[in-house]
Amino acid sequence: MALSKEQIAQRIAKEVKDGYYVNLGIGIPTLVANFVNDDIDVEFQSENGILGMGPFPFEGEEDPDLINAGKQTITALPGASFFDSALSFGMIRGQHVDLTILGAMEVAQNGNIANWKIPGKMVKGMGGAMDLVASAENIIVAMMHTNRAGESKLLKECSLPLTGVECVKKIVTNLAVLEIRDGKFHLLERAPGVSVEEIQKATEGDLIIDGEIPEMKF
Q1: What span, in angstroms and rounded, lies between the C-alpha atoms of 63 and 68?
Q2: pLDDT > 80? residue 103
Q3: Given this model, what pLDDT does residue 26 score?
Q4: Which residues face 141 on adjacent strands?
Q5: 3-state DSSP call for residue 24?
Q6: Under a CB-based contact definition with an 8 Å cutoff, are residues 28 and 103 in contact?
Q7: Which residues carry out catalysis?
Q8: Is 107:153 a contact under the CB 8 Å cutoff?
Q9: 5-208, CATH topology level
Q10: Of 129 and 191, more confident
Q11: 134-159 per-position pLDDT tens digit
Q12: Torsions phi, psi of 134, nearest 5?
């Protein structure tokens, strides 16, 4: 059974380690803060100027002055700090962020990512994605495996304008966990109830399957 957006975020939360500084991009990545284990110390950064972002607030407890880069209301943990965009991108460009989690429209098997523009459609701007993918050493992409037409978003080559080149390390989709190595997608885990054959059919790029592929654990 394919994962929900919340389950994708829950699986990615297992990749977050104690002491990490983590940037959460717009969309599915913003949900990751809701699922990180309480026994580890993590600082979530949002590029609009907050370090120490907490989970989403409960209904009725929202503060309209506290928002993330996607303009969603958030919470701030004790000790959180607020700053301008110049300082925020100084943190990013200075490689002070240990892990970047962001969404994508397409990912190629060589690690290229396209996540900011569809030609011919209005776009508000590229946001901070280009800085993030250019500066981060560790990038995990949260995305759906296929588009609404059922076409693969894990490709041999991206067809959309690129955000970054050869930068993606790991991908968590609604069907699988994959790692990019040696210019190919390597299947690490599959969603509960999803077969390897289903993942193969949904992946246009070269997919390496080595031995028995375990189901994801949450």
Answers
A1: 12
A2: yes
A3: 86
A4: 102, 171
A5: strand
A6: yes
A7: 47
A8: yes
A9: Glutaconate Coenzyme A-transferase (3.40.1080)
A10: 191
A11: 888 899 999 999 999 999 999 999 99
A12: -75, -25
Q: Are 193 and 210 in contact (CB under 8 A)?
A: no
The CA distance from 19 to 142, in Å, is: 21
Residues 6+ apart with CB under 8 A from 15: 99, 140, 170
Residues 6 or more apart whose Cβ sits within 8 Å of residue 7: 174, 191, 218
Q: Is 49 left (phi over 0), alpha (psi -120 to 50) or beta?
A: left
DSSP secondary structure code for residue 163 in this structure? S
Where are the chain's structural domains? 5-208
Q: Is the pTM of this model over 0.90?
A: yes
Distance CA 97, CA 21 (A): 5
Calculate the alpha carbon distances from 57 to 50, 61, 157 in Å.
16, 6, 39
* CA-based nearest residue to 163, from 147, 185, 144, 141: 141
How far apart, in whole angstroms, are the C-alpha atoms of residue 25 and residue 122?
20
User: How long, in residues, is the chain?
Assistant: 218
> Mapped to the 3 state alphabet, what secondary structure does 168-189 carry?
CCEEECCCEEEEEECCEEEEEE
* For the chain, percent of residues with pLDDT exceeding 70: 97
Task: Decide: 3 and 174 in contact? Cβ < 8 Å.
Answer: yes
What is the residue-wise DSSP string for 60-108?
T---TT-B-TTS-B--EEEEEEE--HHHHHHHHHTT--SEEEEE-SEEE
The whole-angstrom separation of Cα 98 and Cα 121 is: 33
Which structure tokens are listed for 201? Answer: 């059919």
